[in-house]
């Protein structure tokens, strides 16, 4: 039985992997997420996804390891997870009434030097909303732990006027791409659980 490790502390990513039904476990990558400011969002998420996967794979070289990283890009500015409510208000102020890209880098490492990498971009357009509505959304706390300060599968979908691309990519893992990577690596799906030994 293959060992698959999700190199992530993200509950959103775990929820997406849980839905897939493949046996896996999660482990914190424990890496610094600083990158050169000269990198674009697409370049940065690829570098960071690889860094996270490599850190966990170095601890478990016989396992398969999936790492991911996500950033928002709006009018040339790159946004990550807001540290507090005020930062989340500033982020959403940049996104409301605008179109932005959310970029997720993924990296699958396996035994024997297997590596697969991809960057998936979804394009979202938000409604312009009044300040009092923005304050009410911020009060829900969906901004916490989310690049861009919104949850597309939560109340945040009320901000969403248009979405182009993989919706799961917005939540943290581009599942169409993740499934392709896992199939290309020969992962079996829908396996029956091994019978309990008497
Ligand atoms: N549930 C949900 N989460 C979102 C949404 N948009 C962004 N996120 C989350 C997914 C990721 O946990 C986070 C992006 O930040 P990172 O890529 O740095 O990952 P994070 O530090 O959370 O975990 P990791 O680095 O994988 O341990 O934002 C959304 O619409 N819904």
From TrEMBL:
<keyword id="KW-0546">Nucleotide metabolism</keyword>
<protein>
    <recommendedName>
        <fullName>Nucleoside triphosphate pyrophosphatase</fullName>
        <ecNumber>3.6.1.9</ecNumber>
    </recommendedName>
</protein>
<keyword id="KW-0963">Cytoplasm</keyword>
<comment type="similarity">
    <text>Belongs to the Maf family.</text>
</comment>
<keyword id="KW-0378">Hydrolase</keyword>
<dbReference type="Pfam" id="PF02545">
    <property type="entry name" value="Maf"/>
</dbReference>
<dbReference type="InterPro" id="IPR029001">
    <property type="entry name" value="ITPase-like_fam"/>
</dbReference>
<comment type="function">
    <text>Nucleoside triphosphate pyrophosphatase. May have a dual role in cell division arrest and in preventing the incorporation of modified nucleotides into cellular nucleic acids.</text>
</comment>
<dbReference type="InterPro" id="IPR003697">
    <property type="entry name" value="Maf-like"/>
</dbReference>
<feature type="active site" description="Proton acceptor">
    <location>
        <position position="69"/>
    </location>
</feature>
